[in-house]
Write a structure and sequence with these properties.
702 residues; mainly beta; Maltoporin, Chain A; 22-stranded antiparallel β-barrel; five-stranded mixed beta sheet; 39 strands; 7% helix; globular; disordered N terminus
Length: 702
Amino acid sequence: MNFPLRRPRAFGFTCSSRFIRVHFLVIAFLLVKLTATAQQPDSLQFIQDSAVLDSITVTAFAVNTTWKEVPAAVAIINRQQLQRLDNVSLVPVMNTVAGVRMEERSPGSYRLSIRGSLLRSPFGVRNVKLYWDNIPFTDAGGNTYMQLVDMNQLSSVEVVKGPAGSLYGANTGGAVILHPQLDADSGSSFEAAISGGSYGLFNEQLRWSNSGAKFSSNLQQSHMQSDGYRQQSRMRRDAVKWAGEWRMSNKTKLSALAVYTDLFYQTPGGLTQRQMDSAPAQARVIAIQQKAAIYNKTAFTGFTLSASLAPHFDNTTTVTVSHTSFRNPFTSNYEKRNEWNYGGRTAFSYHIEKGKLRLQWLNGAEWQQNYSQIDNYDNNGGIAGNVQYKDALYATQYFLFTQLNVNLGSRFTVQAGLSSNKQLIRYRRNSDPGMKDFQHSNTEALPAPRFSLLYKLSKTVSAYAVLARGFSPPTLAEIRPSDGNFYTLQPENGWNREIGIKGFALKARLEFDASYYYFSLKEALVRRLNDAGAEYFVNAGSTLQKGVEVWLRAHLVNNRQGFIRHLVVGNSTSYQPYTFKNYTVDATDFSGNRLTGVPRNVNVTTLDVETNRNFYSSFTLNMTGKIPLTDANNVYADSYKLLQVKLGYKKQMKAVMLDVFGTLDNALNQLYSLGNDINAFGGRYFNLAARRNFTLGIVVKR
């Protein structure tokens, strides 16, 4: 059966549902009421003065110090940078970080890689650990539903690049620490935002914050939906987040986080080169027929108690619980999952300071438990049919860690850490009468040491070196992938060696961070697709992942007089000549080939301008090199140049700050895939991103 191609709609609010109209009227009314009280404008500075990073406290590795004094490759995305574009997607923001690649195969379907390949991650995030402050967000099965996070819920993001197992357990890529928005200023504040754009995009947010001497609270609600550029690519996300902090005494603090997200997005499937060139907005016919989509409802809560137990002795303890209801009508089956996750983390810190010696000794543990009931049925046009499989899976993951931080004088910092990690998985096919006992897939206790040194070359420049071992066991989604079989897989593991230099120069007008790393990974996990499009995974021998990352940001203009008040130029460059070191499949030797799914060169340039008339603009140019799509390196995705622009007007009034903006995405109208299916059966590699598209929005804060 042939399905007519839907012409992508141009800019405008094309969704006509009553829900959208009601939301639009409510938010518009709030915006008008807030702006009606506006008084004579005052001046407002949008781009902070130089040395932006030096004012931010880094929490990674429990150092609680400035960015340039952390003996690691850590990137900071602050609130201002999160809002550089359309306030809709984390993808363009994360991709400004050197060494980070975030993809979106269809609206709402995120993948994330830090200094590595996307070989493993068909959806979600794997081999990278995510945390909400101290609360583990990655589940015991090794998967992270990052698409559930609304970027407007965040105040900042820390990206730890390279294995971080000494403090964050099982990972080879690194860790991402999300900081929820929680106003530090006393009093109450309110924010309302609404935007809409091409392909039926509609986005709204409401936020209310209150902060007092003892208690702070931040409540946020958001709704986003889009028809999508391609057929079969509609999405909708509703999210509510509450973050609170109770300062029980000057020695004790209790923090809480509660997030609920209801996410739906359709999956159009990969296209061949010929299909992409002729009609890039089309979907696979079978994806339309089978109503392929993801339905994910997740409730996540966590509590953290921080206490000073003695003059030199502190403890931070976290407990968390979450539930996910997941449905995935797919081309070959209809999967239903019921997931429960429980976890806890505790860290005891002993710290002393004598003269020029400062010492911190950290000891703790993290434990997580996952229960998943996974049922697969025939998919009869989006309706679950006969049972294929019914499985029960339990995953336990825990690690013990210790870390020593020593500051020797004012220049030398030594950091040494070690964790012992273990994963236990048991599963049973309940639909198989012959399988009465649970089968087991366990990993031995694997040590993950990490050593780093930092030396301050001057007051503003530091050099550092890192030696770290990371490992990442197979996730539940890899041991039991969508083809319905159980697989015995080995953890991938490897050593990372790294040197770098970072800091400020030219009277803090120039910020910079440059590093070279050499990461040798063994038993790398690689995703493959069978002829039905279902995925499975294999261990791919070893890979060699070495590269260079350079990040610069120059504050070229920072004046209180003149038409241009602030002008900031940034650039991040990643050179990643990754290769398979020892990899043979079915007697075919791929050793020496470029690593599948990884561009060799990525260069991202940013420009931010503020004028004395309260107008501002942001420009981002992402130049990504060609990407090998097969292990044989016989098919590549073309290189592309992605230009994104934001123009806006901000005005601070007596009680209200008004921000009106417009964005232009893919301004050069590139035909590119932002999420390739590697080693895809039938040559269906490409998931096309939207062509040139627009967004208009307004934000009011009070």
